[in-house]
Amino acid sequence: MTRNPSELLAPAVAVLLVAVVVASVAGAWPPFVAVESGSMAPEVERGDLVVVTSTDRFPWGGLVGAAEPGAPTRLGGAGDVVVFDPPSGGQRPIMHRIAFPVTAGEDWTERADPALVDGDCAAIAACPAPYDGYVTRGDANGEYDQSAGIAPVVREEWITAKALFAVPNLGWFRVGVDAAIARVGLLPTAVGFGGVAALTGGFSALLFGRVAARRTARDERDR
């Protein structure tokens, strides 16, 4: 049985439509984030796929830090987990938990957990806070990002999305694509993965077509 191109492309179109629907509900694009490190373990591991939403999307509006009273539980801990993109050149977006908000000029180490701070305010480049923003931390890390030098105080405008839940292991494909793009470039990666997808789709269509043809022939013999 010969399949036309529209039938071969149907699964890819369906996946794209699902992504568009999820994005319209979540208010963020892309609506999924592939986790590339273990800094949010054990709740979120490398290779997991995290569904995200915009920070002001109903009913998840606003940003809440882990230290705030009544902080919601997100991904196994108190406080919102956010994706933020520091302006420093070459750094990839980071997905960590908000610890607490800070104001410009504040010595935020005075209300920080001492076990998560390396030294006093004078020893930390991001202290006092140079502007209003947030102190953040990866759940698996032993220090706040701003104490460890992972990120400066996070401005609200750097935050691109808020994490809702994680699906184990579904992010490995995205991690592989990103690694391939970094190694060989966007166009060769697109051609390579496109070729693999086309071959897989063609083989699957051929296989299912033969199975269907055999069933039809068998049914006709049994009549």
Can you put this structure into words, describing what you see?
With 223 residues, the chain is α+β, with helices and mostly antiparallel strands. It has 2 domains: 1-24 and 185-223, no CATH class; 31-169, Umud Fragment, subunit A (Ribbon). 34% of the residues lie in helices and 17% in strands. It contains 4 helices and 8 strands. The chain has helices spanning 5-26, 145-148, 172-184, 186-222; strands at 32-34, 49-53, 73-74, 77-78, 81-84, 94-102, 133-137, 159-167. The strands form 2 sheets. The chain has a 6-stranded antiparallel sheet. Helix 3 (172-184) packs across helix 4. The longest helix is centred in the C-terminal third of the chain and has 37 residues, at 186-222. One of its GO terms (molecular function) is serine-type endopeptidase activity. One of its GO terms (cellular component) is membrane. Keywords: Membrane, Transmembrane, Transmembrane helix. The chain crosses the membrane at residues 190-213. Residues 13-98 form the Peptidase S26 domain.
